[in-house]
Amino acid sequence: MSHAHKGACHCGTVQYALTSDPLFVHGCHCRDCQKQTGGPFAVNALIERDRITLVSGEPVRTEQKTDSGRPHDIWRCPECRCALWSDYGRREVLAFIRVMTLDAPDACPPDVHIFTRTKAPFIDLPESARAFEVFYSMQAEWPAASLDRFDALGTRRLGKG
Q1: CATH (domain of 103)
Q2: Which residue from 43, 49, 40, 46 is spatially nearest to 16, judged by alpha carbons?
Q3: Which helix (H) or strand (E) covers residue 8, if one does?
Q4: Nearest to 84 by CA among 70, 72, 101
Q5: Residue-wise pLDDT tens digits, 107-152
Q6: In DSSP terms, which residues pair with 116 in a beta bridge?
Q7: Element of type H or E holding 9
Q8: Are 33 and 20 in contact (CB under 8 A)?
Q9: How many whole angstroms separate alpha carbon 100 and alpha carbon 105?
Q10: How big is the CA angle at 47 (ends 43 and 49), to the nearest 5 degrees?
């Protein structure tokens, strides 16, 4: 099996590989992501859970509170507690990989920036960046092949109540 991307936690206890490119990548500027990462935004690569292969270690699930009240689980290294991926809404079939834990994070830049209404004022996005004050239409923004993969998961579209 080929691995499109490899990644690990800070201490290296949990190592993983992605067996394909992600569906889509968000630069998320919401307050939850800012608080959880301690940075101005999180970069999350959306991918099917069955396309994540554990190479070593076993991450642990931690439950987080959110402004929306929907469940948010973060999978972390049990040793260094580094966040590796999230499951927003407890779908179990979709993961939001923390791109900066990839060995080559520059291979997965954000396709869109979301929740820019709470973007830190000292962050300037490139003029060419696709940016949304809150969210966006998946149909309008995602490539057709990614929409097909997402629809195959049998879950509801992101951003829909």
Answers
A1: 3.90.1590.10
A2: 49
A3: strand 5-8
A4: 101
A5: 999 999 999 999 999 999 999 999 999 999 999 999 999 999 999 9
A6: none
A7: none
A8: no
A9: 5
A10: 125
Q: How many degrees, rounded to 5, is the angle at CA 79 between CA 106 and CA 104?
A: 10
Q: Which positions ≥6 away from 28 have C-beta within 8 Å?
A: 41, 42, 43, 44, 113, 114, 115
Structure tokens at 101: 């834990």
> Tokens at residue 84, please?
């590796």
Task: Tell me the pLDDT tens digit for each residue of 126-136.
Answer: 999 999 999 99
Q: Tokens 């998320």 — which residue? A: 28
Length of the chain counted residue by residue: 161
Q: Does a structural domain hold residue 160?
A: no
Count of Cβ atoms closer than 10 Å to residue 84 Cβ: 22
Rounded Cα distance, 11 and 22, in Å: 24
The per-residue pLDDT for 2 is: 58
Provide the residue range defining the domain that includes 137: 5-152
- With beta carbons less than 8 A apart as the criterion, state whether 53 and 19 touch: yes
The enclosing H or E element of 27 equals strand 24-28
Q: How many domains does the chain have?
A: 1
**pTM for the complete prediction?**
0.92
| Residue 87 structure tokens | 């499951």
Whether 131 is in a domain gets the answer: yes
